[in-house]
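To the structural biology subgroup,

Please find below the input and predicted structure for protein-tyrosine-phosphatase, which we are adding to the shared reference set this quarter. The sequence is reproduced verbatim from the submission form. If anyone notices a discrepancy with their own records, reply to this email rather than editing the shared folder directly, so we keep one authoritative version.
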Amino acid sequence: MPYRVTFVCTGNICRSPMAESVLRHHAEAAGLDVEVDSSGTGNWHVGDTADERTIAALRRAGYRSAHIARQFEALWFDRYDLILALDAGHLRALRSMAPDEESRAKVRLLREFDPDAGGDLDVPDPYYGGRADFDLVLEMVEAAMPGLLDEIRAGLKAA
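Predicted structure (tokenized):
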């Protein structure tokens, strides 16, 4: 049975689809049985593709993206082993939606898996920024991947 991970940001067009693409790439390269997707806390962009600047940042780094935005639903907690929020606001929103303590425990911040993140665990929203902002988000996402892959490996062993 695959390990199931989802990333959640605000509109599901910038940060979470970026993280989804990066994890999918690294999980495939590592030969891990992982299902990866993403969604947003809001419905503003449901049905849209990822932001063109997200797609461009991913392509520059050698990642693929084929994404359609959707909104996270409370019924989905049972689907996932790990639900990764991109900032503290998303973390609060998701935990408030969780039906029980077991579901709340699945919700973590992506940057918890970056040992160099320090106390700043938010991935900033690049939506109102430019190329450098999207590239910074990609750097933050990539920095969390080794720790996240270790977490997934541990979860797969425990299953």
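Summary notes: The helical segments are 15-30, 52-60, 88-97, 101-105, 131-158. The radius of gyration is 14 Å.

Regards,
Lab coordination
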